[in-house]
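To: structure subgroup
Subject: Chain for Friday's discussion

All,

I'm putting the inputs and outputs inline so they're searchable in the archive.
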Amino acid sequence: MAAGHAQPIQIDAVLDVSVGDRENKKASTNPARSLKRKREDNGRVRFLNQLAPAKTEVDYLKPHADEESRLRAVILANYPAHMPEFEIALHTGMRPSEQYGLIWSRVDLVRKLITIPKSKNGNTRHIPLNSTHWRHFRSCSRAPVGRGRVFVNMQGEPLKGYKHWFDPAVREAGVTFFTWYCLRHTFASRLVMAGVDLRTVAELMGHKTIQMTMRYAHLAPAHKLAAVEKLAAGWQTDRPTDTKTDTSTFEQESGVVRNAS
């Protein structure tokens, strides 16, 4: 979508995360509990590269013309230790509470599968891991795989959230109206644009009903056109003589019917 034609998008902050003043503070309880679950907004979809990033005077950002490459550049420059969190969110579509509450016993790197025992809709959900997932899960392991939280700080203590680094990165990158939850929208949007059917997208997203997934349906216009074209192709005839023959046959049969009546 060209930046000049984009309509302003108002996206509320989707998470109220109490990060604390110090990332290294010892957590005695599940830190993901501080991530308040907010009702998903069924009417708003904001995904990466939907708009053009704001103009920048920062030299190292000038070569990056789209939102994703700009945001990646900022994270790599200023928050490199958090890149696995960004990548995994972008490639799994997990909700923040699911991601930061994830423990290694629910990540099967052999079968390449994440298990969410109780998602927002109350059901168990399984998320397949692609090669990008696998690589970044390995890189964010600062403790032996299979023990404790997946996302921890340099001291091996659970991370409480993302706002202390992601929000500043978004601002510096010039990506507007964008929150962490928009990474989840990006995951779903890209699946639909790649031709994945909505039912599969709903399962991967953990949506309780297909109606929640329908907000992404408009992102696949080419596939809708292809479906309609199949109907048109099915009724086309290559030989005009076939049409004439069929018409004559129909008229003959109609005459028989009229005579019979």
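Points worth raising on Friday:
The first strand starts at residue 107 and ends at 108.
Strands lie at 107-108, 113-116, 125-128.

D.
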